[in-house]
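Team,

Forwarding the record for the chain on the shared tracking sheet. I've put the sequence and predicted structure together so nobody has to dig through attachments.
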Amino acid sequence: MDANVMEATNILNNPETRELNSAIAYRSIPGNQCLYLNFYKLQEQPFSITPDPEFLYLSQTHRSVLDKALFGIQAGYGFIMITGEVGTGKTTLCRSILNILKNNVNTAYLINPSISGRELIASILDDLGIEHDSDLTKKDLLKKLNNYLLSQTDRRTTIIVDDAQTLPVETLEDIRLLSNLETTKNKLLQIVLVGQNELLDILARPELRQLNQRIAIRCQLDHLSLEETVHYIDNRLNVAGNRGQVRFQKDAIRSIHRASGGIPRLVNLICDYSLLAGYVKQKEAISSKEVNQALQELNIPWYTVETRDIPKFVWFGVSLIVILAMAAQFIIK
């Protein structure tokens, strides 16, 4: 047996890594994105956790947040804040906003904002395509940004700051100062702060009260309801090319919703693993049994899996398929 295949076998059989070994191995196969795509006749992976605006499902809450944010930007409200728990779809919503605005609004999207005020302004200039010398001071960079905004009075400019809860307090204060860039009639810059719920506590600090008071629109993303989870799963499958060949049964969706709490990212993880379990058993209809197998593999801590429903050979089957696929790749090489 090839040494690499033997190593993979050892990893898969190691009790200490058994909870995640199947997923890690099958996703690491060179040139392979997802083992079950061909079986389910899907064009792309339906439950990737990578944010993709094409897969956006607008629940009642997501639709409300999107509408409020777009209204605030178009109306020139200045500051908008979107908050939500990890995995509720904030980044996907951000990218959808950018897609909607791209033809009519200048946009800058900051996704790693735990930086200084000077670095923040430099990043904004870079994203807007404004050339600047690397040794300019913060004051000079701000002047360059202001000149650009004054030249764009017929076209709004919007900055979206994702993961804003990671910003240093000093940088948040610099963001407040950016909102001072205005004419006698209009704000020159629209700023959307997007972050986890702790952003609310951060902005409640006394030293940030001026920034907190300037936020004109506040939006909160909630979890998906059971009914919304049904539509969410169907939407992602349809976008991925499903035409009825794969379906999640009602008992499966109830288990998914209960285990995930309606958090989209967790729904994606559970559905992905459930499809893998269905693929191993060559099942097009995913039941609660496949979901329970997925939950055991993911080790979801707040869900009690009924282990009597889980055949012990199932994940051995996953491991065997993974090993064979990996071996095939090495033989081809």
